[in-house]
Design goal:
By secondary structure, this protein is of the alpha+beta class. It contains five helices and ten strands, in the order αααααββββββββββ. Helix content is 33%, strand content 38%. A hairpin with an 8-residue loop joins β3 and β4.
Length: 338
């Protein structure tokens, strides 16, 4: 594009520079000659008309060349937009030729250069918050390498009323009455690493760490409604590690959404819930596990598609996934010793 401008300046500059030189020579002749004859005056007038026509022709030529250059730049920007390059706002391109035509002959060329410089301003980049929202429910392929930590806390509570006995005279209960309560606090820390190979492929590795604290309460120790037993179990360990592969099928455009296919594999690296021994209190009123499970104990796979479409200022998501677990065998499934 710079070569085109150099050629335009090389063609027009000698003619433009010749005008002031001729005007200077003509001015010197006017100074030297105090009076002109009618024939000389007619020739001078014809030269003035001729120079005026030359200026108009040069102005039209400059405007035509400027419009051609700007049209070529617009076509180049549209091609870059299709390839994923940010485009210049089209309103500036359309308004520039009109502004060039309205310039005076003396300032036409600098104005064209200034307008061309203003057209090169890029459109504003997408906000970081938009990318964060897309990353949470979809994928962003513009980041080469990311490390994303996340923290999750959950609380679980359960109460059980246990009656062991019978009703006498349909009104009096004879037997044991127990009220059990379980309270579990779970803290999970996920460390997710993503690596983008190119605009189509992305790889992910997620490593979770779980810490659980559980309290078991049982009311009715020794057949007493005012006494209760309690036990606390806590522990932390790495959960099931998973890896995923993402492939972008279609890049978001004006008419089509961003479509990404995913495949995830989960490994049983956490503590499985099978074969964990159960411990009973001295009175036999409270039974609780001795360890906390942090994983499922089986391999699992999942695959699916995710779609995302930006409707400023909203973003629409659609996810479809299917998962399955493989069959595994364990030596011990019971919580009893032996």
């Amino acid at each position: 594009m710079n070569n085109k401008w150099h050629s335009v300046i090389a063609v027009l500059l000698p003619g433009i520079l010749a005008i002031p030189a001729y005007a200077e020579d003509t001015g010197s002749e006017l100074v030297s000659q105090s009076a002109l004859s009618e024939q000389e005056f007619a020739k001078l007038k014809q030269k003035l008309i001729y120079l005026n026509q030359q200026i108009k022709l040069q102005q039209q030529t400059i405007n035509q060349m400027a419009q051609q250059v700007l049209r070529q730049e617009a076509l180049s920007r549209q091609a870059n937009t299709v390839n994923g390059v940010s485009a210049i706002e089209p309103q500036q391109t359309q308004s520039t030729p009109t502004s060039v035509e309205r310039q005076s002959p003396q300032t036409t060329q600098p104005a064209v250069i200034a307008d061309n410089t203003s057209d090169r301003k890029k459109a504003p980049d997408r906000a970081r918050s938009t990318d964060d929202v897309l990353q949470e429910a979809h994928n962003v392929f513009s980041r080469k390498f990311t490390v994303e930590p996340s923290f999750t806390y959950s609380y679980y509570s359960r109460k059980d009323l246990i009656l062991r006995g019978f009703l006498a005279l349909d009104a009096i209960f004879l037997g044991n009455l127990n009220l059990d309560r379980i309270r579990t606090n779970t803290t999970r820390l996920d460390l997710t690493t993503r690596y983008t190979l190119n605009e189509l492929w992305q790889f992910e590795l997620s490593v979770p760490y779980l810490y659980r604290w559980t309290q078991y309460d049982s009311v009715g120790e020794g057949n007493s409604s005012q006494r209760y037993e309690t036990a606390n179990i806590s522990g932390g360990q790495i959960g099931d590690v998973s890896g995923a592969v993402y492939y972008r099928i279609n890049t978001e455009s004006v008419d089509w959404p961003d479509v990404v296919w995913n495949f995830r594999l989960r490994a049983p690296t956490g503590k499985d819930p099978f074969g964990i021994l159960l411990e009973t209190s001295d009175t036999g009123n409270l039974t609780y596990p001795t360890e906390m499970a942090t994983g499922s104990g089986v391999w699992g796979v999942s695959t699916g598609f995710s779609l995302a479409k930006t409707f400023d200022p909203a973003i629409v998501f659609f996810n479809l996934n299917y998962g399955a677990s493989f069959t595994e065998s364990f030596d011990d499934l019971s919580g009893s010793a032996g």
